[in-house]
Amino acid sequence: MNAHDEKTVPVRALLLFREVFFSVLATLLCYFTVLLVPIMGLPAGVFTPFPCALFFFRWGSPRGYWVPGCAAAAGSAALAAIGAAQSIPYYLAMLMLGFILGFGMRRQWSVERTVFIATIAVFAIGVGLFLMAHVQGGRNPLEVFEEDLGQAFRMAVQEAEGLAPEKPAMEEAMQRVVPVVARLAPGGVLSSLLVVSWLNLLVLRRYCRLYNLTCASTQNWSHWKAPEILVWGVIAAGFILLVPVPSFVKTLGLNLLVVLGTVYLFQGMAVLGFFFERWKLPRLLKALLYGLVLLQQIATLIAIFMGLFDMWFDFRRLSQKLNSSA
Questions:
Q1: Cα–chain-centroid distance for residue 164?
Q2: What pLDDT is recorded for position 323?
């Protein structure tokens, strides 16, 4: 090692330490924003996995483990200190999601493979933790979860509602809503993980383009299409809902529709992005329209159906472009 290298080693170590520090700090800020400001902080909380994903993508193994490890230790200690130890598993799940996203991008996996593996891995671990937490005295975990969910709803109503005459109506509504929410929880959780993975991966790919880094997929996001085989999943789920089958089978069909609806929401957003680029809309207007689609239920349904029917009608004429280029 020459004199120049000896001088640069401390500088590199200092830069690495600074990047680790700010990455861990960003992770903590994103997650704790959700705890402190539950509704307004949700957009920041969605990007809790991003610092871990970016750091592992940039540094690889073994340095890439520093941010997930330090963030896990610091965040768990902070959550325990403020009496929110029950949130630690969710926090660690977000860190693991970011780690797998960064690992997949580092290994040059496709977008579909990266999102699928990250989502399924975190979901599987979450199911295991759920079963461990809700198996009590041999009872059905779903029944225990439904009771806990109903209790949480009642506590929320008691805190939010001060009008006594409305309480019977609210309790009656909860009795109808809670079982439905409990049975759709698996699909809802899986869809949420898909959305979080998708958003973080989009930002990570944007970072790659800005800094000319090698990325597994060079395809324009507005040209993305879901695998065609997923259409059969939609058809099967719809068929299950139409024929007389046991209730648990219908529940599986509903959960499958929720998950596939999320996938086709992504394709619908890609279709919208394609036309936004063609019309050369300003970035601010595009951001507002994307936000409208994600937050407004009717707009979300329109985007889902747009993505689904794009499989047949090819709104973007991508197949014609492929044939002409061939």
A1: 38
A2: 58
